[in-house]
Amino acid sequence: MSDASRTAPPLAFPEAARRAVANAQVRANVRLAQNAIRAKRASVVGELRDWEALRDAGAAIKRDALARLDELLAQLETSVHDAGGQVHWARDANEANAVVVGLVQQTGAREVVKVKSLLTDEIGLNVALADAGIEALETDLAELICQLADERPSHLLVPAIHKNRREIRDLFRERLGRPDLADEPGELAEAARAHLRAAFLRAGVGISGANFAVAETGTVCVVESEGNGRMCTSLPQTLITVMGIEKTIPAWQDLEVFLQLLPRSATGERMNPYTSLWTGVFPGDGPQEFHLVLVDAGRTRALADPVGRDALRCIRCAACIHVCPVYRQVGGHAYHSVYAGPIGAILQPQLSGERGQPGSLPFASSLCGACGDVCPVRIDIPRLLVHERERVNAAQSARRETVPLQAIGRAFASPKRYERAQRLARALQRLVVSDGWFVRFPGPLAGWGRSRDLPAVPRETFREWWRRERGA
């Protein structure tokens, strides 16, 4: 990540979206990928007659886990310790990064290999490692593409969805020193494989995220499609897993539900090609040190919201992104968040506590409802978007809305003030009225008025007519 990208303030969504829509290539790339994933998902979901029952089960398990998260986290810590691992707690990104950097430094490693992890992107772990002189090598193909291009990921599951294979070929030619590389997918994958294989074999430390952690057994689960995760979690001597506390589930049997819901909803596969499960350490097999870093970073604040907490049920499948008409037009970089799309428009404000500028993400939705329809754990995403909009308005616009409403209230409380206000409005409206209707709205009302028809204040009010005709 460049110094400029570290320090540049995020753009509010409307401005970022305007820039993104102007890039026709990105829109074409996103549309192609969305269409393919949606078609695959529909096919494999249609095979299961109990799909709706699985959704009910997934929602119930996650709801139960969040309701007693304190109990399950204590159980998870005990289970991991009993299996030979170590647990570390982090209240925020700074603490989490400090823990991970310290653990890597204890090993003496100057390089780590990483499994794709949204949470490590959220907390800026790669930057913290780089500041400590430690190189973090992303091993997921799409994450590697973004890292080589010095770009943020633009999708929960397919971080380089905004690039086509010709753009990737040109990037690999420049950054991997392969000027003869073609744009065939197999050749591009082989180039990445050759680049990463030596790193897998020499790395002493692997870093992963987690899809799930089982409180009952202390087992951590990572699902992926390329095998790089298996290499990162089995070859290094030290494995560090950085996990949001909401990923905890109660029992081993619960994985039966989520390992059916997640791959079908995410990539349209019946099962993930690689499902890695590990419990602590085992002498002579795999990593000999395992550290689980449990990160809050705003999650308990979200949990305290009786409405908004449902977003913490998210299993990061990106099904909502694949059906979102807004994401389809702007792609992921328009969202100033690791978590793009409809769920990101909720999670980012929740986790960061961001309610002021640029608190525009909850408005990055048409509220068509498609995201709620496809969510495998039945998160009512449209309802939560409206809830977050209310909170943004309360934080941003309290005085802007309260002062005019108070003035209107004073005018309505007195017949004389009310009539004076009518006469003033009649005089001021001349520049913005045509044929008896407002054609534009001044100042902060401009956006509000673009989608509304409002008649002009009449030349003569009923009260004025009555006095004129009846002399009263």
Please provide a brief summary of the model.
The chain is built from 23 helices and twelve strands.
Descriptive overview:
By secondary structure, the protein is of the alpha/beta class. The chain has 2 domains: 13-300, 3-Layer(aba) Sandwich (Rossmann fold); 402-470, no CATH class. Helices cover 51% and strands 11% of the residues. The protein contains 23 helices and 12 strands. The protein has helices at 3-7, 13-21, 24-45, 51-67, 69-82, 93-107, 118-123, 125-131, 141-149, 165-175, 185-202, 228-234, 255-266, 299-303, 319-322, 325-330, 341-352, 370-374, 381-396, 398-412, 415-428, 446-449, 462-470, and strands spanning 86-90, 111-114, 135-138, 205-208, 212-214, 219-224, 238-244, 248-249, 274-279, 289-295, 433-434, 437-438. The strands form 3 sheets. A 6-stranded parallel sheet has the order 1-10-7-4-2-3, with helices on both faces. Strands 8-5-6-9 form a 4-stranded mixed sheet. Strands 11-12 form a two-stranded antiparallel ribbon. A hairpin with a 4-residue loop joins strand 5 and strand 6 (219-224). Helix 10 crosses helix 11 and helix 17 (341-352) crosses helix 19 (381-396). The radius of gyration is 27 Å and the shape is elongated. The N and C termini lie far apart (76 Å). Mean pLDDT is 90; it is low at 1-7.
